[in-house]
Amino acid sequence: MADTMQNYVELQGINKHFGSFQASDNISFTIEKGKLVALLGPSGSGKTTILRMIAGLETPDSGNIVIDGQVVNEIPASRRGIGFVFQNYALFRYMTVYDNIAMGLKVKKIPKAQIKERVDSLLELVSLKGMENRYPNQLSGGQRQRVAFARALAPNPQLLLLDEPFAAIDAKVRQELRSWLKEMIGKLGITSIFVTHDQDEAIEVADEIILTNQGHIEQIGTPEEIYRNPQTAFTASFFGQNAELPDYHDFRSFAELDHVDRVLIRPEFVKVYKQDEKIQYERTASEGIVESVSFRGDRTELRIRVNDAVLAAKRNPGEPAIRAGEAVKVFLYRIFVTRGNEVIPLENLALQTDMVVF
Question: Residues 40, 166: one domain?
């Protein structure tokens, strides 16, 4: 039986300059066959340049790009067997849905009967059956993006590249397409790489995340690994809705560390209690004042001032309501401390002792 977990894409020491700007700085990683991988990072971090080099739309200054065991640096984009989905759809506006999907097959002079069979199967796959005679301006944004997916898949590529595929779509449809894309890629088993700057999108959709920053790779791992265990100061600050604590000694029961650069706290590390609620670990709770309350449907988001720090926290719908201006008690479970590029997670020492008060 073939090894379905073999590495299908590999970048080996890739460097790329645009004038004096280094867009890729010694980029190396591997992607297993059949995986859906996110290239994630802020604007200008180098993620789109990596995607374009894999596609053959840019050429690296040095290093090798390997696809299915073959170095493809000198192979033109048209011969790399890659499907590419652009963020602006790039559909031919005067062609029907059918003709847009069939375009690449017609260029390859595939027999008409085979084209029809392939296009019909793709229309079924992307849930556009019955819309083949419509034009792009007769479709919604989500439908147009599905046509773009189908067109990229038509030549049966072994690698699918997607450049911010949901950027031009409104929030509700974007959420639906995320789930649809993950399900579709899983069904097809096609190795796929998508670029995004949206951490929620990467966490929800990707099997693995490659986090880029200033032309280099910060961390590679599953969404859960990177979110829960950041390995660099940038990763810790990029993921989650971090607040920065000016002085974590204002909050009791954390280990003392020297030469601390930053202290970061996420909402899920904060537990908020009303004054009359029973408090676990009461001796390590701090007094705070609620500055703002925002209802989000499935949760309520709070901003709370404790001394010189403003923390974000969440309350579930079933918990007693908290109002702006209310005095509350705040317990921090965990913080991230950075020293240089090092990240040190610290748990509240009360969790490791018998300091429990009910």
Answer: yes
Any idea what DSSP says for residue 260?
-
Q: The domain containing residue 268 runs over which residues?
A: 243-352
Residue 238 lies in a domain: no
CATH code at 126?
3.40.50.300
Q: Which helix (H) or strand (E) holds 45?
A: none
State the pTM of this model. Answer: 0.89
pLDDT digits (tens, 9 = 90+) for 203-227: 999 999 999 999 999 999 999 999 9
Band (pLDDT 50/70/90 cuts) for residue 250 is: confident
Distance CA 12, CA 70 (A): 12
Helix 97-107, helix 112-125: angle, nearest 10: 130
Residue 232: count of CB within 10 angstroms of its CB: 18
The CA-atom distances, in angstroms, between 342 and each of 179, 213, 260, 336 are: 34, 16, 10, 10
- Report the CATH number at residue 325: 2.40.50.140
Helix-helix angle 112-125:141-153, to 10 degrees: 140
